Amino acid sequence: MLQMTTMTQKGQVTIPLPLRKQLGLVSGSRVRFIPHQTDKRSILLSPVDDFLRFKGMIKSKKKYTKQAARKSYIRDVLSRNI
C-alpha cells in the first residue's frame, strides 16, 4: 500500500490515516525515526510504547520516581539493536 504525503515548511508530515490505524497511533503518540543503515535516503518510522501504560503491571519493593523510571525505560529502548 503506497501512501504519500507532503512535508510542510516546518518539516512536519501527516501520517496517512490507514497507516496510523495499522500502527495504532493516536493523537499524542510518540514515534521514532530510524535512519536506514545502508540506504541513506530511507528511514523507518516506529511507534514508541508509552511506559506509563505499563504502570502497576509489575509490583516491586523498590520505589521508583517517574523520572527514574523514564530514564531506565529510555536507556533500555536506546540499547536495542534495530
What does this structure look like?
The chain has 82 residues and is of the alpha+beta class. The protein has one domain (17-79). Helix content is 26%, strand content 15%. It contains two helices and two strands, in the order H-E-E-H. It has a two-stranded antiparallel sheet. A hairpin with a 7-residue loop joins strand 1 and strand 2. It is elongated, with a radius of gyration of 16 Å. The two termini are 23 Å apart. 0% of the residues are buried.
Number of strands: 2
Helical amount: 25-40%
Largest sheet: 2 strands, antiparallel
Number of domains: 1
Describe the strand arrangement of the main beta sheet, using strand numbers: 1-2
Choose one word for the global shape: elongated
Give the helix/strand class. alpha+beta
Mean pLDDT across all residues, rounded? 83
Strand content: 5-15%
List unreliable stretches of 5+ residues.
Answer: none
Round the Cα radius of gyration to an integer and report it: 16 Å
What is shown here, in short?
This protein is of the alpha+beta class and 82 residues long. It is built from two helices and two strands; from the N terminus they run αββα.
